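--- STAGE predict ---
source: upstream dedup step, 1 unique chain passed
mode: sequence only
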Amino acid sequence: MGDIVIEIDNVSKTFRDFWLKPVVKAVQTLSLEVKRGEVFGLLGPNGSGKSTTIRMLLGLTRPDAGQIRVFGKSPSTSLVRAKIGYLPEQSYLHPFLTARETILYYAGLSNLDRKTAIKRTDELLEMIGLSKVANRRVGDFSKGMSRRVSLASSLVGKPELLILDEPTSGLDPVSTKEVKTLVKALAEGGMTVLTTSHLLADSEDICDRVAILDSGCKIAEGKIGELGQSLEEFFLAKVGNVAEFTLADFLK
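--- STAGE serialize ---
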C-alpha cells in the first residue's frame, strides 16, 4: 500500500446544468494506480476527461461515484494537499513580478520561513536555468521561460507528487525540450509525476506508463512500448471514433 501514491477506483463524474440534468459524462468508471517514483501519463484528445480527473485528484471537485485516494487518504485533506505540486495547463503569472519575486511569493503561500524561502528560490532558479534573469519581470519572458517559472513555483514546497496538466501546451520545440528535460530530472530524483497530454511524443519521452482516455473512459493502459506500433496511428486517425474500438483492436 505504501508504494501506491494514487488510487482511483471506479470513479465517475457527470456535470449537470442548473436543473440537475446531466450535461457531460466527464469520467466514467475510471480505475488506475500510480506507484511511488513513477512517471504516469494520461493521454487523450481534448474533452477525454484528463483535466476532470486532475481536479478530482486535487480535491477541487468530488466524484459522483467511486473512490480516490492520494497517499492513502482523501485528496481534500490538508496533509495530502501539502504533498502535491500542481502545474495548470495555463500559466497565470503576475507580469510585473520578477522571476525571483514570483517564486518567493509561492514560497510564502507554502508557509516557508524567509531564510528557507530565499534558499529554495535560488535553488529552483538554478534548476530551471534562469538565475541570470532572476530579476527580470516575467511579463518580458517568452512562453517557454514563463512555463519554467511556473514549474519552479509548483516545486517550491518540495512536493512528493507533481501533477502536470499539459506541461508543454503551446510551446515551441526548444521550450518543449527544456520542460521535458526538467521533468525527467525530477523523475530521476525519485519524484512521482502524473502528467496529461494529447500529444503522444511528449509521453513517449518521459512516461513509464500511460493510460489512454476518450469520452471519460480508459481504453488502454501500460507501457508505450507494450501498446503496439499502432498507437501513433490510433491517435492520428482513430481518436475521433474511438468508441468503436476495443483494447484488442487497439493492439492489432
